[in-house]
Design goal:
Length: 252
Amino acid sequence: MQSGKIVTSGLVLRETETKETDKILTVLTPDMGKISLIARGARRRNSPLAAGCQLLAYSELTIYQRGAWRYVSEASTIELFDGVRQDFELLSLASYFAELTESVSGEDQPVPEILSLLLNALYALSTLKKDPLLVKPVFELRLMALSGFEPLADGCAVCGKTEPERPMLDVVQGVVHCAGCKQPGGLSLPLTRGSLAALRHALYGDGKRLYSFTLDKNALRQLDHAAEAFVAAQLERSFRTLDYYKTIRTER
C-alpha cells in the first residue's frame, strides 16, 4: 500500500489495548483481506474513532501507512449489530465467529466472500433473530468450505450412493458416508436425512439464503455437533470464545 490515505470498509475481528489510549485492531476488509491497524486514541472518552474501532463494528475506514504499520485516521460506522451487543449470549457467539474467521483468514489475502458470510451471520442473529443453533453450524460449514476445507457431501464417499443409508460425517477425513461404509482412521458422527440436507445447503446453497430453512431441534443438534467437531478436527485447535459460549448458552 502506498503512503497516501486509502478508504475501505472493514469488520473488527479483534481489538487489543496498547499504550494508554490506543488499540491494535485486526480488521477484515473486502479488498485488502485481514489487516492489522493502529487506532491512536481510540480508547479516549469521546474519541471519534471509538465506535468504529470496537469489536464487531463494521465501518468505513480511512487508513494511512507509516513505516511498517498501518493507522486509522477516520472510522465511520456502517453497522454495529446492536441486536447482538444487547444480548450477552449472542455477543459471545458472534465473538466466536470473529475468532474463527480470523484463524482461517490470511494476512493481506482478500476473500470478500468470507467477509460477506460473516456480515450475513451477524445480521441473521442481530436483525432477523434467527436461532443461534441454526446459524452457528451453517456459518461454520460455509466458512470452512470457503477456506479450502470443504467436506465431500454429495454422496457416500465409499459406495457412491447419492443418499447414504444412515448418513454420517467423518470429521477427520472430511467425507459423508453410509453407516455401513465406515473407513478406518476417521471419526464419524451421525446425521439425520434432514441434517444431511442442511449440511449440503450450508455448503452449496445460495449465500443470500443460507439461513432460510427450518429443521427440528434434534436434527439441528446433530448438525451443530458435527459442524463443531469438523472445525476442530480440520483446524486442529480449540477456541476460547467457543468454550465460553458453551458455558452460557441456553435453549431458545
